[in-house]
Structure formats: C-alpha cells, structure tokens
Amino acid sequence: MSVLLTGAAGYVGSHTCVELLNRGFSIVGIDNYINSSPVALDRVRQITSKDFPSYELDLRDERALRAVFEAQPIEAVIHFAGLKAVGESVKKPLEYYDNNLYGSIVLLKVMREFAVRSIIFSSSATVYGAATQMPLREDMALGCVNPYGWTKFAIEQMLRDLCAADPGFSAVLLRYFNPVGAHESGLIGDDPSGIPNNLLPYVTRVAVEELQRLPVFGNDYNTPDGTPLRDYIHVSDLARGHVAAMEYAGAHKGCEAVNLGTGKASSVLEVIKTFEQVNGVPIPYFIAPRRAGDADESWSSTEKAERLLGWKAEKGLGEMLRDAWRWQKQNPKGYHA
Ligand code: WQD
Question: Where are the strands (E) in the chain, listed by range?
Fold first, then answer.
C-alpha cells in the first residue's frame, strides 16, 4: 500500500518524501511543477536510493487524478499541493480559491470514490490571523487576514465537516509555523521562483550574492530589537511531524488540528546575526518600510503535538541556518542549474 503526496516536489513535500522512504513507506508523488521542479524528486531518489512513481498533473484534472488512484494502491494522502504566496493571494484571490480550494475538492471526491479515508493536510499558522496571545494554541479562535489564509481555513473546515459526516474518516490538519533549512545533504531545499517572499531564501540569495541587500521590513515592532518574532522550524523536523501525523491518523478517526513549531521565537535581526555567525558569510541589510499584514510575533504551543503525535522539533536555529546555506551554496540557481 502507498501514501500519495500531492505537491510532492515542493519544499516540504520533497523533504517528507525522504522521511517516508527512509522509514520504509511506499509513496506516490504528484505535482504540476508550477512552483517546483521534477529535479527535486530525482534528488529524493538519489538521497534515499529508492524509487517511486511520480506523475505530472494538476489536482483539478479529475480524470488524470482518477487514473493515478486506479494505477496505484493508495491508502492515505498527504496533501501539500497549493499556491502559498500571501502577497500574490491578495492580488489574485480567484486563482488561489480555484487552485487551493477546488483542487482539494477534486482530491477529496476521488479519495471517496476509492474509499481512501485518511488525509494529512498542509495547513498554516496563518489561520490564527491577527491573534496576539502567544503561544498560539490549536483551540484558539481562527480568523484570516489574506486570501491564502482563507483557503487554508476553508479546506480545514471541509475536512472537519467530512469527519463529522463520516465517522470512518481521519484528518490531521498540520499548522506549520516558519519552515526553514534543508536536508543535510544539500541536495533538496527551498527554491521559490522569482524574488523570494520569505526571509530565509532571501537571506541565502544575498549570501550567494544573487541579491544585493536584505530589506528588513521594519524595526519598530513591539519586540526586544524592534524586528518581528517568528517560530522558525527545520523543514526536516517538519517532515518528521508529517510521518508522526500519518501514523496517528492510521490509528485514530476524526479531525485534529496540530501546530508544528518549536515553541521558540527568533527575531529577523537574530536570524541575520546567527546566519553570519554559523556560516561566516556577511548578510548586508537595510531597514525598509513595514510589510502590510506582518504581525509583531507568532510562535507555537507545542503541547498538543507532543501529547497527540509524540513529536517535537529537535533542531536549533544554528543548524537550520547552516543547512539552508549548504543547500544554496551547492545550488546557487536552485534546481534550475
Ligand atoms: C518572516 C519575517 C518579515 C522577508 C509566511 C506566511 C505563512 C507561512 C510562512 C505558508 C517577517 C521578515 C521577510 C524579507 C523581512 N507560509 N522579512 N525581509 O510572513 O512569518 O509567514 O511564511 O504557510 O503562512 O504568512 O514568513 O519568511 O515571509 O517573514 O524582513 O525580505 O521576516 O517581515 O517578520 P511569515 P516570512
């Protein structure tokens, strides 16, 4: 039996492929490669010395998706596929609802047709919206502040409703905090197209001198050094959390939301300083105006993940930043050498 990963060639998806294969699982990957590269899947095969079937398809193509379920013995799904740029979602909300929401509806309908009733969903701490009480807990009220967040919220709600209607269904909603870093081999990593929206890929592209200086979006926040605090988590720790969630879903029915974070917060300036210290590479930066929608702070309660999944993050900020640099140094142009 196999685990189907949608968005398998993506940043978190490819790292989860590695963790699953190393744990002896059989996997099937699907991806439309609009924000990723098939090279990532070849690197997964190289890292694990294991092969697996992969298909290029868009989740909204119901016929193509059905053909994968007909060809492969799928018993569970880990659903990563989706557009994920907050700023872009504000400019193109319809594309985000069509891709993320409609794609998920097609996936769930085909899963029902083949009696696949276990899903791990790649959600996001963004569903906590403008919550200011830290650490963020899974039982807090939700509320989003951008279309990307609303798509994650809506898919979570669909899964809650599905589990209420079908007592045999299992869904674990994993709310990621800030995934950073890369597999220790440096063969897979974060490779956003164009100018990175997120902090770490921008830092590593400054480090390889592809970009000149890092804009620090504001230093007048209500934090110790004035720059926002975030819960950065190593992508390999995050991947292990998906394996733990899948094992939980295999033994339990119903719907559970679980944070995947470290419970520790670092500021933007701390990330810059730590990156320079552990890698010996200068990161020139300048203070730019605030970015709309950025919160002063966001970090995770880790209690439920430890209690329910028996999982906790193990890697510290230094290791995250060393691994992020190794990936970028070895792949200055990402997967598009
Ligand atoms: C982190 C900090 C910026 C870039 C987003 C999504 C969230 C999740 C993770 C998908 C902030 C600052 C950034 C730069 C900067 N993605 N920054 N200069 O905004 O916490 O979360 O990515 O699930 O849903 O909202 O992450 O990496 O964009 O920003 O100063 O060039 O770095 O202001 O304080 P964020 P980020």
Answer: 2-6, 26-31, 54-56, 74-79, 118-124, 170-176, 178-180, 214-217, 229-230, 232-234, 254-260, 266-267, 285-288, 297-298
